[in-house]
Design brief:
Elements: H1 24-54, H2 59-83, H3 87-107, H4 114-142, H5 148-177, H6 179-185, H7 187-201, H8 225-239, H9 244-259, H10 261-292, H11 297-318, H12 323-351, H13 357-385, H14 388-410
Helix pairs in contact: 1-3, 1-4, 1-5, 1-6, 1-7, 2-4, 2-13, 3-4, 3-7, 4-13, 5-6, 5-10, 5-12, 8-13, 8-14, 9-10, 10-11, 10-12, 11-12, 11-14, 12-13, 13-14
């Protein structure tokens, strides 16, 4: 097995002056998240146009490809967690995952048939899923435990910046070189992300080489104690964490009668941009707060983020068509996702046994993926069968259940 020594640090929570947490390694991982998100947002934003306009496929093909890709990504995250339990292996998985995702995502530009797009997209998303636990475990390797919140907040901030910049770059590239060339050029930021991960790895503490740990699926040890109780609350949250595209659809439907379909769509996309900006701004402060609050800090910040989501969904269920009113739940959801993702990663890094960090992050990523899939599927049925208001009321109920689970975990002493 390959072991990496924990960085030395002053243990006072939130004392940024005594510990240098924003190291070159942390900056490298943050840069990789930013560049990778830019790289994959370009083909994601242009995939509908490639399928329907260039290849003449029906809209159902897009749904099938995205559904299969997301399912494979979820399964790959679990497998990636097992691979990432070994510190030496997790470095290779991280580098390979970033590079493979970049190449396969850009390769869809040369597809001449729908099945080729589906195969490349599914393979790219599988590689993307494999790298996630490895990246998160790498970040825990290079920062002191008292700075997990800030480190994961920084990584989430950079990822959200990529989500803002990527679609904007896609628009510019399409105007300049067209859809297929724009998708092909997405390989550049994707490969730069792999370079950034290599840079980060070379600035981690030097590992001590031993025999590699055998690949083994370990679920029960991960779910014991505090982490198991927290994962139950996280699962309740993720089953109610619907895809952001449904927030855009809700805003578009409400705004269309007064503004027309085209203008309503533009406004809804502007509100979604505000959501991403709010998530970006909230991530680092959420991490700082988690560090300052000590042992229960990540769970407290997670509780606040879930409450913000609950308020946002309740407003989506009841609000009218005024733009100012719709901006409030978008901003609340953005703040909520910035806080929740940061706190989830910080909590897992703090609570998971060191030799099971990869499996713990793989478990978290799998719960996130499968929960999001379940949320979007059920909400789609409720939306069509009853009404959007009932769909968002259903999501609000899951936020309440998640809050109850988090409050129960806070009543137990932190270990």
């Amino acid at each position: 097995m390959t072991e990496i020594a924990e960085p030395n640090s002053t243990r006072s929570p939130g004392n940024g002056s005594r510990e240098q947490w924003l190291t070159p390694g942390v900056k490298g991982i943050g840069s990789a998240s930013f560049l990778a998100d830019v790289g994959h947002e370009i083909p994601t934003a242009l995939l509908p146009s490639l399928l329907t306009s260039t290849l003449g496929a029906p809209a159902a093909a897009l749904g099938a490809i995205e559904g299969v890709s997301d399912a494979l990504a979820g399964a790959a995250r679990f497998g990636g967690g097992v691979l990432a339990d070994d510190p030496g292996r997790r470095q290779k998985v991280a580098v390979g995952g970033y590079a493979t995702t970049a190449v396969l995502g850009a390769a869809t530009a040369g597809a001449t048939a729908v099945w080729q797009v589906g195969l490349l997209r599914a393979a790219a998303w599988t590689a993307r899923g494999l790298r996630v636990p490895a990246r998160n475990a790498l970040l825990a390797d290079i920062v002191p435990a008292s700075a997990y919140g800030r480190a994961y907040g920084f990584e989430r901030m950079m990822d959200n910046l990529g989500a803002i910049f990527g679609p904007l770059l896609a628009i510019g590239l399409v105007a300049w070189v067209g859809v297929q060339w724009a998708i092909g050029l997405s390989v550049i930021p994707g490969l730069l992300a792999a370079v950034a991960i290599v840079y980060a790895i070379r600035r981690t503490p030097r590992p001590t080489h031993r025999d590699k740990a055998p690949l083994k699926i370990r679920i029960r040890p991960v779910l014991q104690g505090d982490l198991g109780r927290l994962m139950g609350a996280v699962a309740a949250f993720e089953v109610g964490n619907v895809a952001a595209t449904l927030l855009i659809l809700r805003a578009t439907n409400l705004l269309t009668p007064d503004h027309g379909a085209k203008t309503a769509t533009t406004i809804a996309l502007g509100l979604y941009t505000a959501y991403n900006v709010a998530a970006t701004i909230a991530s680092v402060p959420a991490g700082r707060l988690a560090d300052r609050l000590g042992g229960h800090g990540p769970v407290l910040v997670l509780t606040g983020g879930v409450a913000s989501f609950g308020a946002a969904y309740a407003l989506f269920a009841t609000t009218g068509a005024a733009i100012a009113l719709l901006a409030v739940p978008f901003l609340l959801a953005g703040i909520g996702i910035g806080a929740v993702e940061t706190a989830q990663h910080s909590a897992v890094a703090s609570l998971a046994p060191k030799d099971l960090r990869g499996s713990a992050f793989g478990m978290l990523a799998t719960v996130q993926s499968l929960g999001n899939l379940a949320a979007s599927a059920v909400v789609g049925v409720l939306w069509s069968a009853l009404s959007p208001a009932w769909a968002f009321a259903y999501l609000t109920g899951w936020m309440v259940l998640a809050l109850i689970g988090l409050l129960i975990s806070l009543r137990r002493p932190s270990r």
